């Protein structure tokens, strides 16, 4: 593995029954790099992202994150748990723990996974709450918060773990247009802190602004990959051009 | 009309003296059947190899045969094959029978409630590095139990009333006391009405508990 890389994916395949959703993905991410994945619906973007923390089990290939290599064909349950601890995930539908308050959503994993003392975890949780601009909402349950606020907690939960890599699966797709801004602002904050991130998104302008690289996926394959300018501004690939034109 | 209200009222102190036993049987059996129900439900939820088939058979048998038959099988039948059970008293046999029987119902109810919890909750737990046991205990089971509370209390009510079968194994619970009094005084209507009222009163208390639990667990929904 190249030392500068935090993620290396080799020949990754994933099938759901007869349907092959990922058809051999090769991919790498440098430490601190921010990559956006774009492409039409059903192209396998989200499945690829979910494979990176084993919410979906690949059928073939290998993934290395921070020197921990997992072969699809040969691994133990214990390896998966260790592997998941390398990354944090931000979900399209937030997936906040419904039975936990805003603060607990952030501290729960600190306490039971990272085994941090509850007092320290609470302190850290409150710092995060402040950072995501939700002071005063510590004891609110997810159902009492707006979509934008919930997603900010979703991002806060991912930040708190201080894992090597944050994966964002269409973080603004479920939001009302007027709430998108606050979530993107928070992601910009993560960008400014040089946290490695992979973002699946339909926000082209945003992708262009924050990404170091943009990946275009279609039909379970990576079609093209380059700087935001190469992919989003003057794409050489006809398919990408039509895709962007349609959006 | 031959109805003596004094005969009925006179029975209450006798019933209250046995109330402790009925409550003890009910609480212990409910507690065990909820825990066992959760265990079986989780096994069936994840379709754990081998255990899935065993628990399927367990649920089918304990739901499919009468409680009275199960109590007799445990109390009179088991010692015949397993000498360890020879010294088992009627109290333990009753608790064992009620717990096993009602855990089968609890298991099915709780399994349904667990399936109603959004799959994203499990995934979110995994994504922050929790293992399956941690996600189940911290996230999925609490959310499932909230949904299952009305049914769980329903089953507990059934269990409370079914504890009256304990008298068939010779336990002196409120039902047994009533039987004795009715047989010696020939005041059948008064006696059985008195015991019916006591059971009813207990069930009303349980319904109160249900309301309280629902309010507490619904916080945040």
What attributes does this structure have?
heterodimer, A: 247 residues, alpha/beta, Rossmann fold, six-stranded mixed β-sheet, four-stranded antiparallel β-sheet, 9 helices, globular, B: 221 residues, mainly alpha, MetI-like fold, 8 helices, 81% helix, flat
Q: How would you sum up this structure in a few lines?
A:
The complex is a heterodimer of chains A (247) and B (221). Chain A is of the alpha/beta class and 247 residues long.
Helix and strand topology:
The complex is a heterodimer of chains A (247) and B (221).
Chain A lengths: L4 E12 L2 E12 L3 E5 L6 H8 L7 E6 L2 E4 L5 H8 L2 E4 L11 H11 L5 H14 L15 H14 L4 E5 L7 H16 L3 E5 L3 H7 L2 E6 L2 E6 L1 H6 L4 H9 L1
Parallel strand pairs in A: 3-8, 3-9, 6-7, 7-8
Antiparallel strand pairs in A: 1-2, 1-4, 4-5, 9-10
Chain B lengths: L4 H41 L5 H14 L2 H15 L8 H27 L2 H9 L4 H31 L11 H12 L2 H30 L4
Would you write up a description of this structure?
The complex is a heterodimer of chains A (247) and B (221). Chain A is 38% helix and 26% strand. Chain A is of the alpha/beta class. Chain A has a single domain, classed as Rossmann fold, CATH 3.40.50.300. In chain A, a hairpin with a 2-residue loop joins strand 4 and strand 5. In chain A, helix 3 (102-112) packs across helix 4, helix 3 runs parallel beside helix 5 and helix 4 (118-131) crosses helix 5. The longest helix of chain A is centred in the C-terminal third of the chain and has 16 residues, at 177-192. Chain B is an all-alpha fold. Chain B has a domain at 20-173: Orthogonal Bundle (MetI-like fold), CATH 1.10.3720.10. Helices cover 81% and strands 0% of the residues of chain B. Chain B has helices at residues 5-45, 51-64, 67-81, 90-116, 119-127, 132-162, 174-185, 188-217. In chain B, helix 1 (5-45) packs antiparallel against helix 6 (132-162) and helix 7 (174-185) runs antiparallel to helix 8 (188-217). The termini of chain B are far apart. The interface between A and B is medium-sized, with 30 and 21 residues.
